[in-house]
């Protein structure tokens, strides 16, 4: 069953505790946390203190997506803050294999993210180390962007490769996912859908989360 991972990048931070409770009651499977450094991507979001605070109020696994340069510098810090899944960008680190091994050595799940124009070949010699592959379906840095249609073929290609040789690796898709395309993206092969503005821009966050859960379960 496809999982739903609401991204708090689009949440109301003045009402964050309530909105986390709402997505929890709505059936969210993961909480997606986009950490941006203003260097690797042209935006700055939040860091370890926010993650640590969310960990205190929610039992839902924290899916931490590091959109930062040289993420190997902060792996231990984000795990100590409460990350259950830690995903780094292949484009952001020189020693991808070493950094994935560091994450795995701490006993949590490790993921690699690829930007829309980054080919899947980057993963060829690391697939057997991964729990998750996050395909960006927008150019990273800001919420509310439109889904890049060319990524559909990328999802299908990766799904075929995983099904043949790496059946335990999950495919996560992040960017431009709305109620009108979520089922299609899930059917292409996505195991996890990251959804931001199309959940948190609605007055009833719980009901909107439930809509997505029902849709991808059909």
From TrEMBL:
Molecular functions (GO terms): D-ribulose-phosphate 3-epimerase activity; metal ion binding
| Annotated cofactor note | Binds 1 divalent metal cation per subunit.
Q: Which GO terms describe its cellular component?
A: cytoplasm
Reaction catalysed by this chain? D-ribulose 5-phosphate = D-xylulose 5-phosphate
Note the superkingdom of the native organism.
Bacteria
Its Enzyme Commission number(s) read 5.1.3.1
Biochemical pathway: Carbohydrate degradation
Where, by residue number, does substrate bind?
7, 65, 141-144, 174-176, 196-197
GO BP term (any one): pentose-phosphate shunt
Q: Where is the active site?
A: 34, 174
Instruction: Could you list this entry's UniProt keywords, alphabetically sorted.
Output: Carbohydrate metabolism, Cobalt, Isomerase, Manganese, Metal-binding, Zinc
What residues bind a divalent metal cation, as annotated?
A: 32, 34, 65, 174
Cofactor dependence: Co(2+); Zn(2+); a divalent metal cation; Fe(2+)
Its top-level enzyme class, in one word, is isomerase
Described by its record, this protein's role is as follows: Catalyzes the reversible epimerization of D-ribulose 5-phosphate to D-xylulose 5-phosphate.
What family is it from?
Belongs to the ribulose-phosphate 3-epimerase family.
What is the name of the protein in this document? Ribulose-phosphate 3-epimerase
**Organism listed in the record:** Soehngenia longivitae
Which gene underlies this protein? rpe
């Amino acid at each position: 069953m496809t999982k739903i991972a609401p991204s708090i990048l689009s949440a109301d931070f003045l009402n964050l505790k309530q909105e986390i409770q709402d997505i929890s009651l709505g059936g969210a499977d993961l909480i997606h946390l986009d950490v941006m450094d203003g260097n690797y991507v042209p935006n700055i979001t939040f860091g370890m203190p926010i993650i640590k605070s969310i960990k205190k109020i929610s039992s839902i696994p924290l899916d931490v997506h590091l959109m930062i340069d040289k993420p190997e510098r902060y792996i231990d810090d984000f795990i100590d803050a409460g990350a259950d899944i830690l995903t780094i960008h292949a484009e952001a680190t020189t020693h991808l294999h070493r950094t994935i091994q560091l994450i795995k050595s701490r006993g949590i799940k490790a993921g690699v993210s690829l930007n829309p124009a980054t080919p899947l070949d980057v993963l060829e010699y690391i697939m057997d180390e991964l729990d998750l592959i996050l395909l960006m379906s927008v150019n990273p840095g800001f919420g509310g962007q439109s889904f890049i249609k060319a990524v559909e073929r990328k999802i299908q290609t990766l799904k075929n490769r995983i099904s043949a040789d790496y059946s335990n690796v999950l495919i996560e898709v992040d960017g431009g996912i709305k109620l009108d395309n979520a089922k299609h993206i899930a059917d292409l092969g996505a195991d996890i859908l990251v959804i931001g503005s199309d959940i948190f821009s609605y007055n009833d966050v719980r009901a909107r989360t439930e809509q997505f859960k029902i849709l991808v379960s059909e």
